[in-house]
């Protein structure tokens, strides 16, 4: 049963996280910390969303850009009970670009948010199967956006990159003879202060400092053997999006609301089955669900609410080398936004029948 711990790895990086709630992307996994012995991995993935809507008969066109996800991890077993891992991921991000010349009120609007994080985590495993883990996370964020309304630039902002530090803490329980593992991890908020330059009707080249505080979250992950060569796995991720806001000084003055905020927290559920076919090949299938509310307006820079996705994964292992790949198809939940259609007048724009396709690839090495 111990060898059945392949399942989560077979889901592979970004292939299983397309268009998660808010601007969530990587899921902040610390799975490498639970690998046997000494271990290193490198992963990459790409997600291609197709998101479009319409207002008063005007179609937005596909406003969601394809993006890439990179990840890496190194895990060292210091003693029989003590280990550590260093993990690189890109936890949050946004890429919005409304096509020009569509007649849509926001045609030409763009927004980009990038993040990267390095996590150092330490784990102590006790004789009774329980373990504790914790560590620190260094995160960098930068962002920029141009808002176009009716073909004219109404607002532009650049938030220079800045670093923030947070922490993680958790507990786990394992029974290797049946491939059982349950882990619970809390990820703290991380705050960073960004030198910001804004151009709007309020003024040109106006300087301020904008705080971006990425949200706290909790990951509950599990796996267990249910039959010979068969594993069930899954998890729940809660993210505190209702406490998240990006609020540059002049944007609120010009438009009367924060630049980006969310009304509700998100709960993302995953359930899957992994199967080992022979000594070298394994496969998995999983489903991901996130509830949404199409009646509450969301941001025009992220017009999605909820999702349902299916991920297929394969894994090849030979000696100490493992190669995993995955493909994900996600049906994105319907959403409504408020779009400016005249002086001080907005109308609901409806986004529906949208999808995303993701591919991921991971190479792992036990040594």
UniProtKB/TrEMBL annotation:
InterPro entries referenced in this protein's UniProt entry, alphabetically: OMPP1/FadL/TodX
Topology of the protein relative to the lipid bilayer: Multi-pass membrane protein
Protein's cellular compartments: Cell outer membrane
SUPFAM superfamilies: Porins
GO cellular component: cell outer membrane
Main location as per UniProt: membrane
Record's signal peptide: 1-20
GO terms, molecular function: long-chain fatty acid transporting porin activity
UniProt keyword list: Cell outer membrane, Membrane, Signal, Transmembrane, Transmembrane beta strand
Ranges in coiled-coil conformation: none
Protein family per UniProt: Belongs to the OmpP1/FadL family.
Protein name according to UniProt: Long-chain fatty acid transport protein
Species, as recorded: Roseovarius bejariae
